[in-house]
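Limitations

Structures in this collection are predictions, not experimental determinations, and the ligand pose is part of the prediction. Treat each record accordingly. The example that follows, with pyridoxal-5'-phosphate as the small molecule, is included so readers can see exactly what is and is not provided: the inputs are given verbatim, and the output is the predicted complex.
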Amino acid sequence: MKNTPINQEVVSRKIKESGLPQVGTASIREIKKLINNIELETGDSYIRMEMGIPGLPPNAYGVKAQIEALERGVAALYPDIQGIPLVKNEISRFVKNFLDIEVNPEGCIPTVGSMQGGFAAFLMLSRIFKGRDTTLFIDPGFPVHKMQHKVMGLKFDSFDVYNYRGEKLREKLEEYFSKGNIHSVLYSNPNNPSWICFNDVELKIIGELANKYNIVVMEDLAYFAMDFRKDYSIPGQAPYQPSVAKYTDNYILFISSSKSFSYAGERIGMMVISDELYETKFDNLKQHYTSDGFGYTMVFGTLYPLSSGTSHSAQYGLYGILKAVNDGVFNFRDEVMVYGEKAKVMKKLFTDNGFDIVYDKDEDEPIADGFYFTFSYPGFDGVELLNELIYYGISAISLAITGSERTEGIRACTSLVKKEQFGDLENRLKKFHENHPIS
Ligand SMILES: Cc1ncc(COP(=O)(O)O)c(C=O)c1O
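Predicted complex:
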């Protein structure tokens, strides 16, 4: 083997000890553990791009409000399952201010991370129609959503949107929706892992077809306003974060506080159910719950047995953040823009050294610089590339585990990479390029 930046004997031994058949097919957490072990023994720091966790301090407004709430004694009290009125009102204001949509506070529900919102929604949506048993994922996507389906024994179908951008999305979606087995559709926007962002043409298509086929749209806004090409962060002022909510009333939004507000540790997110869906009655729900009302069943039939609501103090923390954001006192985009700045530099280091960006365009516009980007190297598939990059002190995950058909690709997360590491990244990529000349 060629000369590589990290001690080859140690890397090979640690891979062997890990019992993983291949690094390239391992899960995010398995890779994390392996790299920790290699770093410990070699003393070398990796360019760690495998995990999508925030790399910034927590939101100060949140921390302050949460501490004050704890000191007032809220930890002793069960919170309302549907959320405390203060936070519900502030979520409703938030969606008005930043999405330009009206939602009654009743349908604005804090959840244990947006992760729990997804779990609860999948469970209920699989039961709203007799005969319709499948969720459609517009991939690539967040692997844990599929894992949630698997643990609940729920069916899903998916397609990679890479070749179906713009107007082409209509025909593709219609192909699935017209089969009659789909009850709901899910995508993230901006997209984890590819960072593609649907534009209004695409969101309108999704909304129109949801209306035509009576399908619930789950829009996962885990990276709210983090398409940094536009500024969606001024309350009550256009441009607004693009959303399907403009084109259908049949939606659930998941808004995470983990990345946009650097609040992942408190496990608090927002589920926003449109007024119309909240009030809709589905006969089939009566097979499983005492009520047929969607919103009522979400709260008292689904979130109740799952966790009986969300941490009381974290709700105050979220309230503190949202109040500052809604009042225009705190601009959350300014805090997280650094991810985009890092992505810009990192992408250039990769492309200067023979790598390609896999998902590189939103139709004909270059993709935004943000939390994630995807890359490949000529002659390698994603799994082989990861197997090799580990010897160069670079870790990431393969796109193969995200439902992407671009199996040559790898997802890189910018959050944990420090600007001081750019020199190391450059040297390691140069070495890789030197050792693998492109013919
Ligand atoms: C697309 C997507 N959805 C949901 C989540 C989970 O968000 P939360 O931390 O709010 O549970 C993530 C986290 O990485 C994500 O990337």
